Amino acid sequence: MHQQALCALLEKIINEVLALNVNGLGALLPLEQKTLTVLLAELTFPLSFSVDQQQILVTSLTERSDCQLTSSIASLIALKKEQQITELIKQDKLELNGDMKVAQQFAALFENLAIDWQSELAVHIGDIPTYKLSQFSLWLGEKVKFAAKQIPADASEWLVHEKRLVVTRSQISSFNQQVTSIADEVLSLQARIEQLAEKLTTTPSTTKI
Amino acid sequence: MSSPEQPSLSNQQSADSEKTTHFGYQTVDKGEKESKVAGVFHSVAAQYDVMNDLMSFGIHRLWKRFTIDASGVRPGNKVLDLAGGTGDLTAKFSKLVGREGKVILADINSSMLNVGRDKLRDKGLVQNIEYVQANAQYLPFEDNTFDVITIAFGLRNVTDKDMALRSMYRVLKPGGRLLVLEFSKPEHDIINKVYDFYSFNILPKIGDIVAKDGESYQYLAESIRMHPDQETLKSMMDDAGFEQTSYKNLTDGVVALHKGYKF
Prior knowledge:
- The complex is a heterodimer of chains A (209) and B (263).
- By secondary structure, chain A is of the alpha+beta class.
- Chain A folds into 2 domains: 2-115, 2-Layer Sandwich (Nonspecific Lipid-transfer Protein, Chain A), CATH 3.30.1050.10; 128-199, no CATH class.
- Chain A has helices spanning 2-19, 73-78, 84-90, 100-111, 117-125, 127-165, 169-202; strands at residues 35-40, 47-52, 55-59, 67-71, 95-98.
- Helix content of chain B is 47%, strand content 22%.
- The termini of chain B are far apart.
- Chain A binds chain B through residues 1, 3-5, 7-8, 33, 50, 52-53, 55, 57, 59-61, 63-64, and chain B through 59, 61-63, 65-66, 68-69, 71-75, 92, 95-96, 98-99, 124, 250-251.
C-alpha cells in the first residue's frame, strides 16, 4: 500500500500548495476533468493527476488518462527547459501519448505558482518573527550566493596556479627511487673502500727504501 | 485469554441455517439481526469517522484508496457505494466520475446515511450524488445499472450475504466490477494473536471512551471473526455468478479486497 500512501501524501502537498497560490485557482479551470498520467522509471506504478472542482486528485488509476507521460525523475527535471522536450523525446528519455496540451497546461500551472510565503508565515508566527526570519534568509541567501561564486573562483585559482607548485605523487616516487639508488651506490662504494683498506693493512710492504 | 471463545464450526453452520444467523458470536433469528445491526449503527453513526481513524490508526484511508485504484472507474461511470456509511468512497468516486457520472450512496441505516449526506454536502459534493436507503439483499435498482459497485466494511453486517451478492450481480452492468473491502483473516499467526488481543481487549475500551458504546465495538470484533475468510468469500462470489474473482490481502490480511466481474 506504499503507492496509496505516496498518492495521499502528494495529493495533500499539491492541494495545500495550490491553495496558497496568490493567482488563485483559476489556473485549474482549463484542466477541469482532465487527467495526466505519469509513468516514472523509478516507480512501479503510475501516478495520475486529475482535476476536479479546483482540486487535484492523485491516484494510480490509468483508465481516465488524457495524456500519458513516460519518463524518469532526471528527465522531468531537465524538462524545465522547454526546448529540451524534443531532444528528450529523440533520445527516448521521454514518451508522450495523448493530448500534449494537457501536459503543457499542468506544467504551466506549477510554473506560474506564486506564493506569498511571508504573509502565510506571519499568520502562524507573527509579523516581527516573520520579518526577522525573512531578513535572516536574505542574509543567508546572499552568503550562499557569494559562496557559490567564490568557491569555484578559488578552486580554479588553486587549480591553475597553486596546484603546479605541489609535488606530484610520481615526482615523490621518482625522488624516492633516486635516493634509494644513491644509497645503494654509497653502500657499494663503502664496501669497496673497506676492501681496499683491508688490503692495505694485510699486504706486506714491498717498497725498498 | 485475549478473545472470547469463538463458536465452533457446527454452531456457525447451524447459525447460518434457514431461520437463524449470527450476530457477533450470538445466534439470532434472521429477522432479528437486521434490527440489532441497525441498533449498533444508530449508536455509533455520529462518532463513526473518528472511531475509524482511531481504531485503524488512519490506515482505513489507504485501504479505501486501494479500493478506488482497483475500481478502474472512468468519467461518466455510474457507481453504487453500498453500505457507504459516511461516504468516504462516495466522495472520491464523485470527483472521479465527473459531472456526466453518478454515484449512489446506499445504506440500510438512516443515521449513517444522514451523517454521510451532511458530510458530503459540507464538502460541496452535491451535483452527482444520490442517497438511497436500501437493503443490500433487495437492491431497488433496475438490472444492469452500475459500472462499479463497492461495499466497504458492510458485507459482514448483511443478514444473507449470498442473497446480497446475487442482488449486486443483478444490478451490475455486463463488464462491470464488484469490489468488496472487508475485514478478513490475517495470514500469519503472530499477527492474528496481536489482532485478537487488540480487537477484544483494546477496541471495546476505545469504543467505550470515545463513542460511549463498548458493546457495539465488541460486536464489531465478533462480527469480523464470524465473517467468511478470503477463500470462502471468493467462492461465494463465484456462486453468485461473478467471474474472474480474485482477492488481495491488505495489512497481512487484516483486510482483504475481493474483486469480481460480470460478463
